[in-house]
Structures are given as structure tokens and as C-alpha cells.
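Students often ask what a holo structure prediction actually looks like on paper. The answer is less mysterious than it sounds. You provide the chain, you provide the ligand, and the output is a string of C-alpha cells encoding the 3D arrangement of the protein together with 1,3-dihydroxyacetonephosphate.
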Amino acid sequence: MADRRKLAAGNWKMHGVGADLAEVDALAAAVPEPGCEVLLCPPATLIARMAARVAGTAIEVGGQDCHPATAGAHTGDVSAPMLAEAGASHVILGHSERRTDHAETDAGVRVKAEAAMAAGLRAIVCLGETLGEREAGETLSVVGRQLAGSVPSGATAAALVVAYEPVWAIGTGKVPTMDQIAEVHDFLRAELIARFGAEGDGVRLLYGGSVKPSNADEIFAVSNVDGALVGGASLKAADFGAIVTALERAA
Ligand code: 13P
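The corresponding C-alpha cells follow.
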């Protein structure tokens, strides 16, 4: 099995103003030398300030989306090189909220991922089924299609992270059973290896959807779970620090 460094990633979504950077200081103090990779993805307005704030700590900073072009007449958008210049090392792409709010497609996510990788960013490509799709027995076909369509052909273990986030588990407090998570993660691992060989074995697979300190240990014990993409519980250093600590225990 490939040596995959565990990753605890926080997605602040559209939360956070300057005052909330105190949580980042508290997180850095709580996990000064984390035994896993720790990433926070704030709104675009905070990336540069957060990056300056975490300088000298182990915490990395990422974006939540990027435009596929380097620059141009795209009002309101931010490009991958701009994120990198602001201090981001990663970018979340194809989150289900963007697939819903902005009608993002697999092909659209793929070109964004290509742009991210060209700019030296690690792309965290998100996928996951709706409740209706799960109940119809379509989970593996949906995530398989999303993986095939959203991940560019040049992906490497260093440049790609995949996050499995069942839409019905996001922000709801509902979590799949550990067997359900294992089924999807084992499937995604096999698909990545089939497409990318050894590089696919090295791609980190994150679980996301209502991860909390109280359920982190059992989730991190699941086969092919290499970390988490955390929403609500990443906003407070006490909660996210506890999740990081749980991941360190599993590493
Ligand atoms: P919650 O952890 O708030 O359920 O959000 C998960 C998520 O969407 C992370 O990207």
C-alpha cells in the first residue's frame, strides 16, 4: 500500500471575517507539530491574511474554487495562479454546494482541476451522491461517473486529493455507516488504481459530511479513509483540533 500522509482539511465555506483568524492562532497552538497535514480553506477574502497568519506553523491554506482561466474578463471569479500567489497550496473543486448553486458539471470541474495543477495547487476534487441516488442503489455508479469526469488525466498522487461527501450527510448530522463509507472508499481506490496505477494508490481519499470530534475516531479507522474534509466543525479550533488529534492517532 502506498504511504499516504493523512490530511485534515477544513472548509469554512462562506463563513469567517478577520476576527475569526483568532481561531487559526488557537488551532496552531493546539496542534503545534501535527502528525498529519492540516489545511484550512477560508473564503477568498481571508486567504492572504490567513496565509500570513499561519506562516511558521504547520497549517496550510487553500481556496474553495477557482476559474479555469489564468486571467480574463470573468467578473467575480478568482484564478488558480491568484490563489497560489495569495498563499494557497490547495483548492477545493466541485463541492456539491457549487455543483448545486453554480450548476458545476464534471467537465467544468475537470478543467478547473487542470488549471489548479498547472498553477502548482493540489486539487481536492469533491464527489458524492444525493439521498435519492443512494436510495435508488446508484451510489457507486454516481461517484464513479463523477470521478471519471472530474479528475483530469494528468493527475498524480501529489497533485490530487479526492473527497467523498455524500450530499445528504453535509451539515445534517447524518453520517453513513462505516460499512457504507468503506464500500465507497474501496471502490474509489480501485477506480483510481485502474486509471492511474501506483499514482492512484497514492491519492488521498477524504471523507466529508458531519465529521465531528465524537465520530472522527471511527471514521478514521475505515479502510481507505486518509483524512477528512470538515465543514462546520472546522470553524472552531477546539473542534477541529480534536479532529486533527483523532487523525494523528489513526496515522
Ligand atoms: P459539514 O462538516 O458541516 O457537514 O460539511 C461538510 C462539507 O461540506 C465539507 O466540505
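Residues 95 and 244 are 22 Å apart (CA to CA).
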